[in-house]
Each structure stands twice: as C-alpha cells, then as structure tokens.
Amino acid sequence: MSAHQVVFLAGDGIGPEVATAARKVLQAAGVEIEWIEKDLGLGAFHKHGDALPTETLEAIRACGVALKGPTTTPIGTGHVSANVRLRKELKLFANVRPVKTVPGLETSHGPVDMVIVRENTESLYAGHENEVAPGVVTSIKVITEAACRRISDFAFDYAKKWGRHEITAVHKANIMKLADGLFLDCARAASERDGGNIKFNDVLVDALCMHMVTNPSRYDILLLENLYGDIVSDLAAGLIGGLGLAPGGNYGVDCAVFEAIHGTAPDIAGQGIANPIAMILSAAMMCHYLGDPIAYRRIRRGVAAVTREHKDLLTPDLGGSGTTEGLTEAIMAAVQAQPAVA
Length: 342
Hints:
Elements: E1 4-9, H1 15-28, E2 33-38, H2 42-48, H3 54-63, E3 65-68, H4 82-89, E4 94-100, E5 113-119, E6 123-133, E7 136-142, H5 145-162, E8 166-171, H6 179-194, E9 199-204, H7 205-214, E10 221-224, H8 226-239, E11 249-251, E12 256-259, H9 277-289, H10 293-309, H11 324-337
C-alpha cells in the first residue's frame, strides 16, 4: 500500500511533544505516512505574521487530511483563533469527539460511551462582534438552515456507520426560539428523513449538563450547535478522567483534521510529562478516516492495555509519575503486540 500524505501541525506548548508521540504510535501500528510538516498557531504567527499561513491551508487541501497539535489563542487580544479560521477556511463543518471510559481509569461516573457531534462553523463562534457604544458590545449568534441540516444529516449518517442507536439534539429553544428553534427543527427533519431507524429526542442544554453528571450512560450521540458543543464536550471529557483522554476530529466534504481537544498546557511544556493519550487516540481516528480500521483498533487496544496494566507509567495528570516518552514507548510496544485483525 502506498503511503498516505498527511499534513503534520505540531502546534504550540505541549503540542510538539504529544503530536510527535502520536506519530511514533502510528509508525508502530504499521501505518505508512509521508508527513508534510507545516506551521500553525502562535509559532506560525511569530514566524510568518499569520497564525494560519496560506501555504498551510494549501497543503491540507492538497493532502485532504492533517494531524494537529493544540494551538495557543490569546485571550481578549491578539490574533484570531487559528482553530476557528481553519474550520471556516476548510469548511470543516462537523466536529466529532468520542468520549468513552478508558479501561483501568474508570471514574465514579460509571461507564461512559457517548459521541459529541458539534456543528463547527457558526453560532456565536462565527465571531461577529461589535462595540456599539463605549462599554456596550454585541455578539451575533448566526444559525443557518443549511448548516443545521448538514450537521444533522451527518449525525444520522455517523450513527448508522458506527452502529449507534440514539441521537439527542441539545438546544435552548425555550429562550432562543428562532435560532435554537431552527437548529431543533432541522434535527427533527433529519430524524424524519431517517425513517425511525435511529431513535431521536431532544433536551435543553442546562438539563443535559445535570443529566450528564448524574447519569451519563443515558446518552449515546449528542448533536449540538457550536458553542454548546465546545462546552459540553469538555464536561464529557471530565466524566472519564480529563481532557488528556479525549480525542477529536473535524470533518468536511473534502478533508479532515484530527486533534486532541485539550489545550497547549504551557505550564508543563518542555518538561516531558505531557499526556499523549488524547493525541494518540485522535491519530487512531485518523486511521479509520484513511480507510485503515485495523490500525484504528490496534491503537485503541494498545492504549487500553497500557492504562489497564501499567499504572506506574501514566503521566501525572492521570495520577502516575511517568513521562511522555515512557508512556509513548509502552503504548508503541502494546500496539505492536496487538493482532493485525479487525
């Protein structure tokens, strides 16, 4: 099999450490990849004067797939989020974040196995803000029928492909009757087009947060608009032990970008103790996208074998005293030990 061309975006902070770890695990899984290294984020801004250089965008469009480390976005000032721009420019309309209990790292919340499907291009994250008067700022929430229909259909297609059984649309349509009402109407219409194969219901976003903490096993796939999806996915990650265990992928019509959902953790960057598991699981998602479900399963099983049997190798955020390098090497060995079967 010829090598896949994949754009490698190391990112900022701990990004280069965890993204490099993911590359090593992919190699251990036998995935043939030709890496195209490009700049993105704060480092790119300092180097090129642009957090998302044109050549980076062109490379992703040409390859159709990228593996991305976390990037820094200044708070309140500075450059616009490279993540937001990347999703807009590449039309990565669907953000998928599987949240599943990791063997050996079970929490008091019980078994969790849900998927967050988040619309990725609009809502308040469209970034339409204005200072209309001194001390008065408006931020416009953009919801379109086209985007709501597209993400709803994507969720139902995903459910069928992955053997999921229920989709819950998350909204605040009791207050934002037009904006969230449109999102909910599109989700209901997608359910009607599905013909009842996938069970469908809906829930208010505030009620959802309470339910997730008290009984997260009641949810399968959550369908959310952009801002709610960002917040709820972090809450969901907390149910399984933290952001260091939660992978993610951004899907468009022509390309996809895979990334862990955590941040750059500048306080531990360069110390060799960053947790690479979320990035490694994101790389596994990328394998599935590239048409290699065997590598996807080998990596997931390899990670599970280490978290279940080698607690001493886990990084400090997971209660261990291990290092990024040591944990990565253990996962590589465990992946290689997995049979190359579906």
